[in-house]
Amino acid sequence: MKLQSVLDLPDCKVLIEGNPQREVSKVFCCDLLSIAMSKAPADGVWVTVMGNKNTLAVAALADIACLILAEGVTLDEGTLMQAEKEGIAVLATELPVFDIALKVYEAGK
Fold first, then answer.
1. Which Pfam families match (predicted)?
2. How many domains does the chain have?
3. Shortest CA distance to 10 belongs to which of 98, 99, 83?
């Protein structure tokens, strides 16, 4: 599926658009950065509640297409600006991790 399908999810607020035409491989849920560093799929949508600059660094390292911050978490302006430079889409939602991950999965069906 294209990233645009994720950007269009009504439960998410788009903070950084990234590349809407980028192909997305799968959804990945993890809150431990060390695990995400080794297991996050390239071109994936990573759903987490970890909203800090280290999360973005891991997302860039893993070549994540989109970072979704669940449970009302967000990133500071400096980190959002870095996400834009890296070409990583960033979305925020009030939904729990599982609920938004399921919506991403269903959008790709």
1. DRTGG
2. 1
3. 99
Question: How does residue 109 score in pLDDT terms, banded at 50, 70 and 90?
Answer: confident
- The predicted model scores a pTM of 0.96
User: Residue 51 in contact with residue 70, Cβ under 8 Å?
Assistant: no
Beta bridge partners of 23: 2
Query: How confident is the model over 39-66, as pLDDT tens digits?
Result: 999 999 999 999 999 999 999 999 999 9
Beta partners for residue 46, in sequence order: 28, 67
**CATH number, residue 37:** 3.40.1390.20
Retrieve residue 68's tokens.
């979704």
Q: What is the pLDDT of residues 69-80, one digit of tens each?
A: 999 999 999 999
The boundaries of the domain holding residue 87 are: 3-108
Q: Find all residues with CB under 8 Å of 61, minimum gap 6, and list them.
A: 37
